[in-house]
Design goal:
Blueprint: E1 3-8, H1 15-20, E2 23-26, E3 29-32, E4 35-38, H2 45-53, E5 60-61, H3 66-78, E6 83-88, H4 96-106, E7 112-116, H5 121-136, H6 141-152, E8 156-160, H7 165-169, E9 186-192, E10 198-205, H8 207-223, E11 231-237, H9 241-254, E12 260-264, H10 267-273, E13 278-284
Parallel strand pairs: 1-2, 1-6, 6-7, 11-12
Antiparallel strand pairs: 3-4, 3-5, 8-9, 8-13, 9-10, 11-13
Length: 292
Amino acid sequence: MKIALVTDSTSVLTEKEVKDNNVIVAPIPIIIGDKEYLEGVNITSAELFETQKQGAAFPKTSQPSMGDMLALFNKLHEEGYEAIITITLSSGISGFYSTLENMARNYPEYGLYPYDSKMTVRLQGYLVLAAAKMIKNGLEPQEIIAKLDSIRSTIDELFVVDDLKNLSRGGRLSNASAFIGTMLHIKPLLTFNEEGKIIAFDKIRSLKRAVAKVENIALERTSKLDYKDKLRFFVFHSNDAKQAEGIKEFIEENFPGMPIDVAEFSPVIATHLGEKSIAIAWMVDIDKIDLN
């Protein structure tokens, strides 16, 4: 079966990964005032934060247009693709997955298989890379989806934001009312729940203590895994490379030899989390599991 693979720009795949794996990336729009930018095309996270420092309007994000997606799917269909797997950022923070589900029902001829990563950035990106490997290995769409479910179940992420202003204003924090309006210098600890929604689960005074807390939680959670020798770690940050380097050193000390990806949050995700956000995450290393 000829299968196409589509994702959105929050998966932050490199140009080489996109080319080598025949992935099609749909850029997500970011609207600042009356200007629209496209993630991965003409705006970076650093540029996004600079517009805020200069007093620009609060940024908003949208979805790739339905017209553009239909045109893409029609093109792929005409090129002989019998199925199209589309791996999106979490449905808990975007309506893109829901839009694709509706399109799959309304346009069955395209053979759409929308897949909710329930995550974003490189965690989502590695699901895409896993799907690409399985396509190359000749698996059918249903088999790929089942294996993606298994991989997704190994993902965990803990992050700290400098404040909740962006998340609460953008409506991306499910339990915002319990944490907004607390005293200054409190740093919320957040994660994705099983539905892929961002929730705050604790609040710590000072960023240093908050980072130490998520590091300790990471140690505790990973120690209980039966695949802890097959983990890949991630450190994400919003314009805070120094803090990210400190967490990387913590991982190297406690998990010697484990692969670590260090990257900035994509502009879309940085829009919601704000500057000086930091995260530690892990999942099973797709290079160490059977994808046949």
